[in-house]
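Dear Dr. L.,

I hope this message finds you well. Following up on our conversation about the binding site, I have prepared a predicted three-dimensional model of the protein together with pyridoxal-5'-phosphate. For your records, I am including the exact sequence and ligand specification that went into the calculation, followed by the structure tokens. Please feel free to forward this to your student if that is useful.
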Amino acid sequence: MELPFAESYRIKMVETIRRSSREEREKWIKEAKYNLFQLKSGQVFIDLLTDSGTGAMSDRQWAEMMLGDESYAGASSYYKMKEAIAAVTGFEYFLPVHQGRAAENVLFSVLVKEGNLVPGNSHFDTTKGHIEYRKAFAVDCTIDEAFDTQCLHPFKGNVDLQKLEDVLKKSAEKVPFIIITLTNNSAGGQPVSMENLRLVRQMADKYGKMIIFDSARFAENAYFIKLREEKYRDSSIRDIAREMFSYADVMTMSAKKDAIVNIGGFIGLRDPELFRQCTVFNIMYEGYITYGGLAGRDMNAIAQGLYEGTEFEYLETRIRQVEYLGNRLIDFGIPIQMPIGGHAVFVDAKRFLTNLKQEEFQAQTLAVQLYIEAGVRGVEIGALLADRDPVTRENRFPKLEFLRLAIPRRVYTNNHMDVVAIALKNVFDRRDKVTHGMKIIREAPIMRHFTVELDLA
Ligand SMILES: *Cc1c(COP(=O)(O)O)cnc(C)c1O
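The resulting structure of the complex is given below.
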């Protein structure tokens, strides 16, 4: 018999989690104003809100924490991180920051000006927030296939070269850079192919533009390139990652994702002049350039995490778990973004709750229902997250309404995935009875989804 697949690690430390009753959950979610960000984590049984900063560090990462050098300037931890970044990404210069959005804040303070256009593939919400905060505009150039959840394109994160060229042709002078998100979080954890990266590079060169990689899940992207792009079948994840990054001028990184740490991030750069300009803002916003808002121990853990996060066996274990959950949902006939992405399963709420209109926040409604069913916390990636148009202040209704079930790295077992799948099946079986969506009671002027207060419509 062929041996079954098993995790490439064993469990050495555990954290107790508690179940709750349906009555408790109904009370708690009401108190949280139907916003899952407002729940206490102790009110959640299986937490799939995010895969950001929620991973389990390895024994080696914890050992590195003990070795962290807590010097204000010139800590050995800084040099350890520098060496790991150079080895894994090829970037010679770097600035540590406390998390991914801080990297965006520092870099965009130098590069983004009022009235700019920033083309890319489904910009992440903080990226878009940092662009719009500077009165500039994010232009989505993702391929159309990404918006059809049933289309089986292997690289749905790809940039549509025609859409990109249209922007560059018409308004090249307004474009400070092109940003590529790997994997593409907002469109379902979908990867970008090496071929696409190469072609975007050619176009960027033609128009003399820089390319920035939003690299939170670059290792998962490299894994998909290895599996789905014939030419890279025998390449190592590290070699693939190095080639990917060779097409970028700058990278921003939330280390809370593929570097498997609980906090941290960095900017990788090649141009010493741009590095110097960013340094000014890094010191103002984050801290001195050799710690950037991080403790030495955190930098050590990131360095170790960059090596572990780019090991094939680890990535295979991780992505196969996401696939396991996705396949269980498919077996129940639940509509999800296909193919299954790298870090999360994206449930197609428009097809799930066909009774409701998008104006009633279908994905948020589904997230609340799943929480009440089993204490499973997912997150809405839909109209709430899409926020209002910064100019007209009208609600934006994105093409897709997703309930994202993000899987923390090395944390849950497939038994937990079974609970999630059955809970969602139970909601699916009674979907005709979900006749009321949500309405907004109170919202912030930007990035409202974190604090929005809702009620039943
Ligand atoms: C998480 C994330 C960010 C922001 O990083 P934080 O560490 O949460 O600040 C930026 N881009 C992408 C694609 C992300 O997934």
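In brief: The chain has two domains: 22-51+312-456, 59-308.

With kind regards,
A. P.
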